[in-house]
Amino acid sequence: MSGSRAARAAGVAAVAATVLAVLAACAPPAPSPTASRTATSTPQPRPTGTSSAVAAVPLQPAGDATVLETGLDAPWSIVPLPSGSALISERDSGLIRERLPQGGLRDVRTVPGVVHAGEGGLLGLAVPAGSEPARLYAYETTADDNRVVRLPLTGVPGSYTIGAPETVIAGLPKGSNHNGGRIAFGPDGMLYVTVGDAGDTDRAQDLSSLGGKILRVTPDGQVPADNPFPGSPVWSYGHRNPQGIGWDSRGTMWASEFGQDTWDELNIIRPGADYGWPVVEGIAGDPKYTDPVQQWRTSEASPSGLAVVGDTIFIAALRGERLWTVWSTAGGAPVTAEAFFDGTYGRLRDVVSRGDRLWVLTNNTDGRGDPRSGDDRLLEVALAPADPARLPG
Fold first, then answer.
1. Which pLDDT does position 237 carry in this prediction?
2. CA nearest 101: which of 112, 85, 89?
3. What CATH number corresponds to the domain at position 224?
4. Whether 217 contacts 190, CB under 8 Å
5. In what order do the strands lie in the sheet with 105-110?
6. Whole-angstrom Cα distance, residue 281 to residue 288?
7. pLDDT reported for residue 45
8. Is the N-terminal amide bond of 278 cis, ω within 30° of 0?
9. 8 φ, ψ to 5°?
């Protein structure tokens, strides 16, 4: 090991216990089942500063995953709640299921208006920041379009109920493929929405179309005054089918994106930037377009959900059947990527952080995978400081 690597290894070891303690402290508190929370306050921006200890130490999966739940049907998105429960969307049926804090699943509600066809259906879920969310946001395919709806969420673990949907943003193009579908609240409290080109590649470069874009709106669906294109929800464009978004400790926004035949992508998202589709795919070196910071052969990735812990990015891969772990350099490029669980659990659809662990959804029952006993499953993955030999430099 070189002197610099040895020094870095010593530094990693010195703060490893601190990192894991900080991560564990982020775990949700034990639920209180005696009171119902129905607060309707406006979501506040999430803090952009992750603990310096967490940000300083790259992380990686530690050992094999633990199976938390089985018997899910084409799950697409999972969103943890502060109470200790989590909500899971099932694409084809439009059903939302609750994973209870003590384990076990219960059906909450089928979202009205969901129409499954091809890759469409009930897709991404998100909740605004707060001690107990009063509203659940969902990306759904309807008979006419893709849209984001907001549903009142009341109750406590084991008895959550979801009310009638209210449209936040509608008219997003739909297709049998490339529906995008990931939604998340950013550090600024705004709602970010990934929209695919829905099979019409020209939409990605057309700023009058919402297809092939990442959108940014207020929690009520209004266009923020500081968006890059006045009066437009478009935040970035030139995308084919982005399905993962997240922010690191510095507030940098990352997005995963399906390529066509050659290159899948990991991008740093900048407001107003053009990511090139359909003119270019992958790294092109053309100054007119923003290149990805990492690319993979489509057989190795087909990247969907994305989670960021500190400055480490985790990406669930479908066709690649692995969890990509990406370490950035001071929150930017160049990056180093390492695959974990290659083929072990089949197709992976979503990954979220849960205290000092990751939760991962498999996706083998969506018609493209090979279902295994117990599929689909919710997995739990412990985290540990990364092996210094794997890191850049």
1. 98
2. 85
3. 2.120.10.30
4. yes
5. 75-80, 86-90, 95-99, 105-110
6. 13
7. 36
8. yes
9. -65, -40
What letter would DSSP give residue 158?
T
Q: Closest by alpha carbon to 165, among 204, 198, 191, 139? A: 139
Residue 286 tokens read as: 């053309």
Q: What is the per-residue pLDDT across 291-315, written as a single tens digit (0 to 9) for each? A: 999 999 999 999 999 999 999 999 9
Return the exposure string of 262-271: e unless at least 16 CB atoms fall within 10 Å of the residue's CB, then b: ebbbbbbbee
Report the sign of the C-alpha dihedral through residues 350, 243, 271, 57, in that order: positive
pLDDT of residue 4: 47
3-state secondary structure of 361: strand
Domain containing residue 280:
59-77+158-390
Q: How far is CA 194 from CA 22, 233, 241, 257, in A?
A: 31, 11, 8, 10
Q: Does residue 72 sit within a domain? A: yes
CB atoms within 10 A of CB 312: 23
Q: Does some domain include residue 207?
A: yes
pLDDT tens digit sequence for 237-253:
999 999 999 999 999 99
Which residues partner with 316 through β-bridges?
Answer: 323
Q: Is residue 48 part of a domain?
A: no
- The pLDDT assigned to 56 comes to 63
Count of structural domains within the chain: 1
Structure pTM? 0.89
- Give CA–CA dist 250/48, Å, rounded: 6
Q: Which residue has the tokens 């920041």?
A: 129
Non-local (6+) Cβ contacts of 337 within 8 A are 266, 294, 296, 324, 325, 326, 327
Q: Which neighbouring-strand residues pair with 297?
A: 263
Report CA 81 to chain centroid distance, whole Å.
15
Torsion of CA 194, 27, 154, 145, to 10 degrees: 10
User: Does residue 213 lie within any of the structural domains?
Assistant: yes
pLDDT at 389: 83
Encode 3-61 in three state secondary structure.
HHHHHHHHHHHHHHHHHHHHHHHCCCCCCCCCCCCCCCCCCCCCCCCCCHHHHHCCEEE
Phi–psi pair at 388, nearest 5 degrees: -55, -25
- Tens of pLDDT, residue by residue over 34-81, are 222 223 333 333 334 445 555 568 999 999 999 999 999 999 999 999
> Are residues 296 and 313 in contact, defined by beta-carbon separation less than 8 angstroms?
no
